[in-house]
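Researcher: Here's my situation. A collaborator sent me these components and asked whether they could plausibly form a single complex. I don't have experimental data yet, so a predicted model of the whole assembly would be a useful starting point for our discussion.
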Amino acid sequence: MQISLVVNDKLENLDIEPRTLLVDLLREKLGLTGTHVGCDTSQCGACTVHMNSQAIKSCTVLAAQAADQKITTIEGVASQDGSLHPIQESFRRNHGLQCGFCTPGMIMTSLRILEKYKEKKVDEETIRHELEGNFCRCTGYQSIVDSILDCLKNSDEKI
Ligand code: FES
Ligand code: FES
């Protein structure tokens, strides 16, 4: 089947099998390998991308369901000139990654957390709750949570 979708602001017209998962389309057809596959049980969140303004697990969505939608992957988060998004800078500043495998999914989920809490007071427990769908197998959660809180604290930065 033929589908069209916008990925990282670029219109893509693709010929796919109806059973193709969105994560496979991103990685194998478009070469966007920043989106990872970390499980086959829809639990780990390594495959998290944005569909329109929602964070979704791209291993649980058929590519056909993304037809005519707007997808953003980790490759679309930094500015075109290569400067990092404030949440990426914050992960770097706070050592919010160890092996880095979960990091793209963590960043995509963090962006939605920032959007949700940027005008509000938020505590560590709430951030941990919001991250429940993303696993870090290195157990680097403290630094990840610190990265998000630090970014929120500096939310006069463009987030
Ligand atoms: S690969 Fe999608 S949740 Fe693990
Ligand atoms: S940094 Fe290693 S899995 Fe998260």
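Model: Some features of this prediction you could bring to your collaborator: The chain has a mean pLDDT of 96. The first strand starts at residue 2 and ends at 7.
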